[in-house]
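Discussion board: Methods & Data

I've been asked by a reviewer to show the raw model output for two of the constructs in my manuscript, not just the figures. I'm not sure how much to include, so I'm pasting the format here to get opinions. Each protein appears as its amino acid sequence followed by a line of discrete structure tokens. Is this the kind of thing reviewers expect to see in a supplement, or should I convert it first? Here is construct A:
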Amino acid sequence: MPRPRWPGRPRSTTGGALARLPLAAAARGAAALALPLLVGLGTGAVVPSVIAAIGALWGVSQDGSDPYRVRVRRLAWTGVSSALGLLAGGLALRGGNAVTVTGCLMAAALVAGTLGLRGRIASVSGMHLLLGVTVGAGIPVPGPWWQPPLALLTGVALVLVLSAAPWLWRRHHAERAAVLAVYRTAGEALGAAGTDDAEAARRRMTLALNHAHEVMAAHLAPRAGRRQQAEVRELVRAFHCAVRLGEAVTALVWEARPLPPAVTGLPLHLAERLLPGRASAPAPAVAAEQVAPAPGADSPGRRALADLYASVDAGPDPADPALRLPAHWWPGRAARLRYATLLAGCVLVAHLLAEALHGPRGYWLPMTVAFVYKPDFGPLFTRALHRCAGTVVGVAAIGAVFLLTPGAYAVIGVVAAFGALMAVGVRHHYALATLGLTAVVFVLLDLLGDDRPLYGTRIVDTALASALVLVAHFLVWPDSAAHRAEAQTEAAVAAARRYRDLAPRTGPAQRQSLRRTAYHQLAEARRAVAQARGEPVRPGRSLPDWEDAITAAERMCDEVTGQAVAGAADEGR
């Protein structure tokens, strides 16, 4: 599942709750799940249409609001890996040998575990390879061997087309929204200057800038400038201006003086000038003398802000650096091997337990293990609890719906509704996504002819699989999240110290690069620490105060930024 919004991920601050709902994604989820079933109902090809709907279900779980090139790549790998898994599992099941089925599941789990901690797309691909094998080896499907993988791939492709279609008329919407979020949060940080909320507001601006940096990274590479369209050049220029704005705002927050409305409204006015008509709210015209400090006032931050405002119409600055994202921290080989072994062991035990409890078609247990055991997707303990809660509510909801909705078209409408709910859940809450997925899977299995009484069984199986994962992980690898938090905190503090030591002796471009790296790694460390806090701790052991070290490093970076801006202002006099 796509990673949920963790505390600190930038959020929109405009438009209320309804505006924050991903209505377009919900519509895509409903359409992607309903269309294959409608085609199957009209043509009589029920089985291929249901398999295509399963592919669409997995595609909806990986749909996102990130740049189109990223979501296309993720959905393409989701389709290919799940189709290959379904093919391998189906062929193993057709062979009729239980040992072959078990070996296929184990091999898929080892591959999924090996890929799981190597990056976002690799992790998603490995998980869906395992899911494909689990379903293929657990549900006998009539027809030629090649038909189920092709139908599954068609369902994922449908989601890909629906998700990427807006590229035709709003090509760089995600990049534009991310850059504008920096200007909005910069205005909020200026409004909070001199108050108790100033540090938290600066942190929100930094997170928005980190997110914009990630989204814009492909356009910031040195070679990208040669072939950029006018719209992309406009966005790159606005991003570089946002980086300079972030430095000036950080200096003003560090100065800890309340600011007049003419200053706090300047970021939105800058956004209107750099990206005309695209800011979230109109900003009044601001004169440079309104931004500059009063005569005799010692405010380097306001002078830097005034200089930025005065220079924004001068065109791109050739000194703008090709800002690179800092290298992402990944677990080492030993951690990857341990995770792959644990995942394979959990899948094996779940498969044997399912065979003992249910006989054939006992795929729910190993499938739940594949969904739950994703330590790179957030706190494992919370994920397991949300999986159980979502399954319980999903089973209750679909049971009530089945009593009230007779008729094939009504059932398809139910699938569309729960598909839309799942699309909302994958962006906001894992339990909500699980609720939608559980309800849809029940309908699809009913259409495949599995009319066993499974309501209570699915709840018990989900609880068993979740307990199996938690027991195995916290017995064998209880400190994984703590080790990750410690390593990322040490790397972030080292980056902050490097910024402190080198910033006074470097030019503006190198200083921006050092500052971006330090703040970016500090934010990632804070997120890793929050994940470690969400996991159980062994009795008698307490986690270090990593937050204090991160906060101290952030304040040191704020001070270095303020001093650097003051030094640049003195040189410009």
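Construct B, same format:
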Amino acid sequence: MVKGVSNPEKLVEKIVSSLNDLSGKGPSQDPEGTSSKPNHELCIREIQEKHLWHFSICPIVLAHIVWLWYKGKLSTDMKRSDLYGTLLKERWSESCDKRNSSSRSKYRDIISTLSEIAFAKLFAEDENHTIVFEIDEEKNVTFESQKTASLESGIISRTNVPGESPQYYFLHKTVQEYLAALCISKDILRCCLHIKITYQNQRRESGTSLSEVFHFLCGMNSKAAEELSKTMNELFTDFCDREGYSSMAVKIHQNEIIQGQRELERGDNTGSELCLQHIYIHNFDECVRGDKKATALERYYKTNQSSVISLHIRQGNTKQALHLGKKSDKNVLNLRKFKGLKYLHVDDTSFKDIKGLNLNHLVECSINFRTPQQAPRLTSTFYKSDIKCLNRIKTLELSNLTDLNWLKEGSEREGIIDMRRLANLEHLTKLKLEKLPHSDVVNLHELRLHTLTISFYELQQAPQLMSTLSALGTCQNEREGIFSHLKVVHLKHIRMPEEQFSRLSQSFIKAGGTSLDLEYCSIEQEDDVPQLQNECEHQIVSYDCKPSIELLEVTITVEEFIRLIDHVTRCGQSVKCTLYVTTLESNHAVEQPAFPILVPQPISADYTTVLELSGNKMCTEQICQIVGRINQLNHSVTLALSFCTEISDEYNPLRNQMVPPPNPSQDCTKHIEIKYMNISEPLFWYVATSAIYRGYTCEISLCDILPSKVPSEDNLYLPQMAPIHSPAHTAKLRFNIVSIPHDVVERLACQAAISAHVVECVLDKCYVGPPPDVWSLKEKMEEDPAIQIEKFKFEPNSDNPNSLWPESYKADKTWDIRFKAKAKKSALAESTAEKPEVTE
């Protein structure tokens, strides 16, 4: 079963050449009318002109199309069903009409039998036996009488394994789907009901796998196609109700129906209309241009609106509205006729209002205005409706809607949003209120939400909201209160003191299986407030979903930044902490804080801490402190730095004692990854020596390692110590597209050699400069018996430099170097290495 070829043009050339070697002539002629042998370029051009080149992704079908072209059997804009019908008829003619066996079987009878088999197997209860299957020949007497001719035609094939029943399969899956469509066209209602029951009970997917059968059917029988389109929409609705709405899935579903409509229109079925109950419109104006330029999507949008189940409009503009009437309505989206809507998504719209929205059937309602809007007609809909009419709703998302007074009950204070009215909606699990012109949210605890997004238009303290979310402070390893159901929280434009953020982040980590995202928030220092102590150290929580903390463009004090990483790395469970474009604010009046030294910890089941820092500005000391903290930990850690800016200072981490973990674990692994950065030489050496002596994996890509301005012998003291990791943990250093001084490579090899254990080092497409001295580097490395050079090759690269490549990287002078240090101390390296003033 061939799945694809890398060069379909070459395949066409080989097929045409082989056909030319056979007797007979093809369809092409020279200008004078005399016959000439066809050429592959003409074949490719005509297949493309007949709109059949998309079959090039399927080499088996492409080969048959070339064969039909050679025989002059292709027509312009050929329906898919006609193409496959011609293909099978020609196979039969070539394989069976000339054999004696064909006299006992007629083509029409065999195709009828195979179509029944194709349908039964394609929509069998066991999905694992739909393509390769068994046929009970005793029960299927018709197939038994036609088996020989079916196999001779090549439409169906058989494999025989000794001791097992024969296994059958069709020429290609699309051939089976074509034959299944033939079966449906003969017994529409029975087959569509069988498909629906099979998918609802066994497949439980959206019905996208029916697309090929559906497209074949559109070219065979318009009534059958209409019925199957209804079934596909029902299956897709069931899928949305079960798995949740997906805009990507809707676009795929809609595209299948529209392609089917085009297939219908290739025949005499222009009056037929397929069913499309799930509509996605990327540009609203393009869908309401007028009847003269009507598109298939526009027709679906304008007709049968009462049957539409889901409607997704993105980037709507204000030039047109669905129902043109009063001029004042030109900026209003009118949904009056969409009575059965269950899923409404209006994204990034410049409409000023929405009218006619029916709330009774809504399961998801997401409305995102491009700019702040009062939207009086939309809010009037909410005002006039009993909140119980939203009893089916699971997701409610509103952005840039300035009037939310319809949520209020009683005499609430101005500027405060009260959630009590929504507490009556028992199925509401996802709530998003963005760009709120308010100052706080209260009574959130009365809702049973799984996902919450709260975004204010400007920075707000929102004390009651924050108090509710950080109320877990005294819970011990149990999901209590709001955390018994809340899993994902996204907050934007909130100011909070350090103590409140500490309590909030620790609450989410304690709860386990939760995610906290802060965006454009400010974490500020507060005078005379006692700092919250870490309260959940070594509390292993066994949740499948691991907690995560993410900060995006958040301003945070250095003290709280260190406190956060300290807590994340020693809380006793796997946590992912991500900080993007974080602004660190220092208090210059006090001494800069450092990570506390870890006290001995009990050995427990291994877990992994993931730290990702991207786009942050940090001084050398701060980055080294993070790496130093990793050195102390006795569990697995992954540290990723990308697009960060290192602010060089006079800090030299190698002058300080490198403290090993109190209880080194033999099972934990450490991984450091650095991308798209300029790295100072002190930082590089601290990371590299940590990796070498502790058995880390270290990957550095698309970076500049900046040479120190001070001679190395006066600036850096590289440690010389015994390895403190398991011999099984081979230290692995990988450099990819890195600009690195040759003396740094030399000292790196030296450190690997004196480490007394295996160190693998790979430099892939690295600029090691200056180039004239690189060969002398190779000679020095070869003199050391502890170093084994596996590759040392100059690889000139003519590619144009990428804008993200290191500034000093020279693409045309790159080296590929691979060496390994043996697990044996090198006398030569020991004699040439510096004697550090540092001890382990």
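Answer (T.O., handling editor elsewhere):
This is acceptable in a supplement if you add a one-line summary per construct. For B, something like: The first strand starts at residue 156 and ends at 159.
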